[in-house]
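wait is this the right file?? whatever heres the structure
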């Protein structure tokens, strides 16, 4: 059953990491339903660590757009893009370190349910706006826009909010097209999730058994493969559709979680 639960959690992570539906919120909910063992320290570490392979899938998918060396020369546009990504990453670093202990108290299903519903409503309202004519190239994104999106990302420290959801909504409100908002959200995920994973590992350690390391390896492979497919899907999806459907999904899921909480199915 350990391997089945591992694969389920990894699939959930891979699907939800880049969709505006909250991967952390889904993992908290699924783990509470599956009861992935009594070792909470390992479970918490597992949930964080399998997010990293999902980020590597972004690096592979967007390699040509992210690697700054072209024909033996540095590409100034890509270097500038990385500067904007790092600038947008700074707010999360500062607030994450300052509020880490307090944020851990929010990791409960009630918080997830409320954040899902509120976030879903916000996505639907934002998608009622006309986003045509906005910043339509990732390289035209200004430092001001990038840093502001970085502050939007900090909202995702509340479980159930969704990192990608917060940054995509932030991008749309700041005048980008859906494509640019999604693409910058993917790029910003790279330092954010690498930093978060490294911090959690340093804080909690890696004192796992051989069996637990195998579970982490299996989960990592599954998370990477599924996440790559989701990134490819989403980049095609947003060319023809808005994010409103994800807002509806969030509201429905949030209401369902509240019902399960009321009935005592989850706590």
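ok assuming it is, sequence goes like this
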């Amino acid at each position: 059953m350990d391997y089945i639960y591992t694969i389920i959690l990894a699939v959930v992570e891979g699907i939800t990491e880049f969709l505006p539906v909250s991967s952390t919120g889904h993992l908290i909910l699924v783990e509470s339903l599956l009861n992935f063992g009594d070792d909470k320290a390992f479970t918490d570490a597992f949930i964080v660590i399998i997010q990293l392979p999902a980020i590597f899938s972004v690096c592979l998918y967007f390699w040509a757009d992210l690697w700054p060396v072209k024909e033996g020369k540095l590409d100034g546009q890509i270097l500038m893009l990385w500067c904007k990504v790092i600038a947008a990453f700074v707010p999360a670093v500062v607030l994450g370190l300052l509020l880490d202990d307090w944020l851990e108290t929010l990791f409960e299903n009630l918080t997830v349910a409320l954040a899902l519903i509120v976030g879903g409503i916000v996505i639907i309202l934002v998608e009622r706006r006309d986003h045509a004519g906005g910043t339509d190239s990732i390289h035209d994104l200004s430092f001001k826009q990038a840093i502001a999106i970085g502050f939007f990302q900090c909202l995702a420290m509340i479980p159930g909010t969704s990192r990608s959801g917060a940054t995509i909504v932030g991008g749309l409100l700041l005048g980008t097209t859906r494509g640019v908002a999604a693409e910058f959200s993917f790029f910003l995920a790279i330092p954010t999730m690498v930093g978060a994973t490294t911090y959690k590992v340093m804080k909690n350690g890696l004192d796992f058994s051989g069996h637990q390391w195998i579970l982490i390896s299996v989960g990592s492979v599954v998370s990477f493969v599924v996440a790559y497919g989701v990134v490819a899907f989403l980049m095609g999806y947003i060319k023809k559709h808005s994010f409103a459907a994800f807002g509806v999904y969030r509201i429905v899921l949030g209401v369902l979680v509240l019902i399960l909480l009321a009935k005592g199915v989850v706590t």
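The chain has one domain: 2-263. so i think its the right one actually
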